[in-house]
Write a structure and sequence with these properties.
The chain is mainly beta. The chain is built from five helices and 47 strands. The protein has a 22-stranded antiparallel β-barrel. The termini are far apart.
């Protein structure tokens, strides 16, 4: 009888437990801060109970509670405003994502936000800052970076930038932890097309112009880390302008989220503002997707995909350029025949599996592939006249300086692929935040290059030889190369709190091996920041390390010339990775003015360069010597003040001073990127009494680049181009986007989350900026540098809608 009674009680208990489980509610989600960064160790609790938990390193949490008609969830974290969310008649599974804002009243806000921004040497940037930016790219991340201290971009048509004296190829870019590669044959901004970063999909931006940690690749100048966002529910956004269109669609069911973005662009009107007239036919298109499947509480799968198709067609007709000084003005006139057809197609796919072993340990296994198919094809001939401006032929004192013909031909093809497998991990052991990883990459390149140039001036072919007509320049490449790279890193971030200061230390080691030159690299890196307890508005930083520039395909292509003057490309397997020993000293000061938060930053840096591979610029084309032929240094000062004149949107003013020196063949010369000064401004404000009307301004003034004549190294001759000056402005009107809009529940406009219309004026002062030079050589072998100007003043109208 007692046995039956025990069995009966056990059954009752089991049924009760099952009933309780059936009535439980599982609440999970992610907590982020105002910069869309995961907020770790935030407290999540159920009001009126002892049930609660903390978010992990990803800002994620999960808890179970008995079902109730009303459940109130409280989110709290030191330095952030408490958030309360009330669930009415909740479902068995609820996804609740929350964004927490800094508590402006608490002094601790400065402490917490400052440490979170500098714990690994990376600066967090406001995602909303670049939205609505008046630039020809339509509000790209790179155009925002160009206004930052130490960052220079002297071509509004391009997404490439130089950081603290480095070349375009010295910047590493990551999207969702996947290293991004750029096309190799791009010669100008009009060829380049769309940046791979889709601004409609960006959720988080981290950037470092020096002193970045060991997790980032072997690049010497900067690291840009982009994380695509995860939609919280169904959403859609559409952008239309005179130059193109974009669309983004996303959804989230709790277990599965997806975000898709597509962009289309044609810059015909913009390119037509240049001095070379003709039929421009650019077609730029890309599609990207970011999908996340939360299979279980421990496993998460992420797929990132990109297809980019950038085609550029051009049939030039004529060009007329006036240049020089008032006392020595010249006029260059060309009539063209022929056409150019370029193709840059890139494909990217990445699949990652994240395993959350415990609350403090996470592993990620990823496999990615990059493929590029590039073609540069042109056959262009021209007849040109170079005169003293205002004269023609026998008229005037100066008259005709040169007359001639030329032909240019290219059939350059490149196919390249990079397959990468990687495993990374994160662990928290007390105060130690450990990050570690191992990566293997296989590279494959197929290069077929054939380009030449012929010139005739006053009836004489250059060069003039008695036995026949020769080309002034020709280059051939027929290369197939495969290689393997292995890299590993380990870094530790430590947070310390004493009675004197709050301290963060990030130290790490990076190891790399490349099969092509059998080179093994060791790169130590360290970053230290501290904030005095009694002066929490101040933060001081010191960073340093040994950074290498592991050569990619362009950098180890060496051109050799035979006795006839024919150029051939050989691959230099004796090449060494250029080394940069860096030291950075910085400080931040946070204060309030006009009842708004402001911050002033200043950094001094020094970079010692060794085993440097010299190079020269021609617009966006970077031509490397292919050998370790120089050394040098870069030093400078960067300043920045930024704040929120408009709530929720940052404005800033940056100023940089820089000096570079390169020892090339025993001669001390500046680097090609030697821009001695630069000033960047990004400003947003609302019109008084019209809060829906927003004004934006983006301005850049920077020193001109140092350039050389064709096929001449800078130890022989160089000159400095004019400074780059450009101001773009924009005005937008917010039609829908505020709760007080009073939209009727059944009104058509209820479908819109935000709707705005705007007008942009590019190059407000209509300044002719120089991108490169066209060199004219007469029969006496005297060369004239004819400037190639960038875009002039242009108007753009845009419409933006979010659903």
């Amino acid at each position: 009888m007692k046995s039956l009674l025990r069995i009966y009680c056990l059954v009752i208990l089991m049924l009760t437990a099952f009933a309780m489980m059936a009535e439980n509610v599982k609440i999970s989600g992610r907590v982020r801060d105002n910069e869309d960064q995961p907020l770790e160790f935030a407290t999540v609790r159920i009001a009126g109970t002892a049930i609660g938990t903390n978010t992990d390193l990803k800002g994620e949490y999960s808890l179970n509670i008995a079902k109730s008609d009303t459940i109130e969830v409280v989110f709290s974290c030191v330095g952030f405003k408490t958030v309360n969310r009330r669930l009415i008649d909740p479902q068995p599974e609820v996804t609740l994502n929350v964004k927490m804002l800094p508590d402006d009243i608490m002094l601790n806000e400065v402490e917490v936000e400052g440490f979170r921004s500098n714990i690994n040497g990376m600066q967090s940037l406001d995602v909303d800052s670049y939205k609505g930016s008046p630039d020809v790219s339509g509000g790209s991340v790179e155009s925002m970076l160009a206004t930052m201290p130490g960052v220079n971009s002297s071509n509004e048509l391009s997404s490439q930038y130089s950081v603290r004296g480095g070349s375009f190829d010295e910047n590493s870019v990551y999207i969702n932890g996947v290293e991004i590669y750029r096309p190799q044959l791009v010669r100008s901004g009009q060829q380049e097309g769309l940046s791979i970063i889709n601004p409609d999909m960006v959720g988080n931006i981290k950037f470092s112009s020096g002193g970045f940690p060991a997790r980032y690749a072997d690049k010497m100048s900067s690291a840009l880390d982009i994380t695509y966002r995860e939609p919280e529910a169904f959403e859609a956004a559409i952008g239309l302008s005179l130059m193109g269109a974009s669309v983004a669609i996303g959804s989230n069911t709790g277990k599965f989220s997806q975000l898709h973005g597509a962009r289309f662009r044609r810059n015909n009107s913009l390119l037509s503002s240049q001095e070379t007239r003709g039929e421009y036919d650019p077609i730029y298109f890309d599609y990207q997707t970011n999908m996340i499947l939360k299979a279980t509480e421990k496993f998460k799968i992420n797929f990132l995909g990109n297809i980019s198709l950038n085609h550029f067609g051009f049939q030039p007709t004529d060009r007329e350029t006036t240049f020089g000084t008032m006392e020595n003005a010249k006029q260059f006139k060309v009539y063209f025949d022929g056409e150019e057809n370029d193709k840059f197609e890139t494909y990217l796919g990445s699949l990652s599996l994240e395993y959350k072993k415990s609350r403090n340990t996470t592993f990620t296994l990823s496999l990615s592939g990059f493929l590029t198919n590039e073609l540069v094809s042109y056959d262009i001939s021209g007849e040109y006249w170079l005169d003293e401006a205002g004269t023609s032929g026998a008229e005037g004192m100066g008259g005709e300086l040169g007359v001639g013909k030329y032909m240019e031909h290219a059939r350059n093809r490149l196919r390249a692929s990079v397959i990468t497998a990687a495993i990374t991990g994160q662990s928290v052991l007390g105060k130690n935040h450990l990050t570690y990883g191992l990566k293997y990459s296989h590279e494959n390149f197929r290069d077929r290059t054939k380009e030449w140039e012929w010139r005739d001036s006053a009836g004489y072919s250059l060069p003039t030889v008695p036995e026949g007509v020769h080309l002034i320049y020709n280059l051939t490449s027929n290369q197939d190369i495969k290689g393997n790279r292995v890299a590993a890193f380990a870094e530790d971030a430590i947070y310390l709190e004493t009675d004197k200061a709050f301290i963060t230390i990030n130290a790490g080691l990076r190891f790399a091996y490349w099969s092509f030159n059998k080179e093994f690299l060791v790169s130590p890196r360290v970053n230290l920041s501290f904030t005095p307890v009694n002066h929490t508005g101040w933060t001081f930083r010191v960073a340093g390390g040994v950074y290498y520039q592991s050569p990619f395909y362009k950098e180890y292509r060496e051109t050799v010339t035979d006795f006839l003057g024919n150029g051939y490309v050989v691959l230099n397997n004796k090449i060494k990775s250029p080394r940069s020993i860096q030291a950075v000293f910085g400080t931040d000061y946070t204060f309030r003015a006009f009842n708004r938060p402001f911050k002033v930053t200043a950094e001094a840096y020094y970079k010692n360069l060794h085993n440097f591979i010299s190079y020269e610029y021609d617009n966006l084309k970077v031509t490397y010597s292919g050998v370790n032929d120089s050394k040098g240094y870069v030093m400078g000062l960067d300043f920045k003040i930024f704040g929120q004149f408009v709530p929720g949107s940052d404005s800033w003013l940056s100023f940089s001073l820089m000096k570079t020196q390169q020892d090339l063949n025993g001669t001390k010369v500046p680097l090609p990127t030697d821009q001695r000064y630069s000033l960047g401004l990004y400003f947003t404000d609302y019109f008084p009494k019209f809060p829906r009307l927003r004004f934006s301004l983006r301005g850049i003034i920077s020193d001109g680049l140092t350039m050389t004549p064709p096929r001449v190294t800078r130890d022989q001759a160089y000159f400095r181009a004019p400074s780059y000056k450009r101001v773009d402005i924009g005005v937008s009107y917010l039609i829908i986007g505020e709760p007080k809009d009073g939209v009727k529940k059944y009104n058509f406009w209820r479908h819109f989350k935000r709707l705005s219309v705007g007008i942009d004026l590019f190059n407000l002062f209509d300044i002719s900026n120089v991108s490169s030079y066209y060199w004219v050589t007469d029969v006496n072998n005297i060369q004239y540098a004819v400037p190639n100007y960038l875009t002039r003043r242009q108007i753009n109208i845009n419409l933006s809608a979010e659903f």
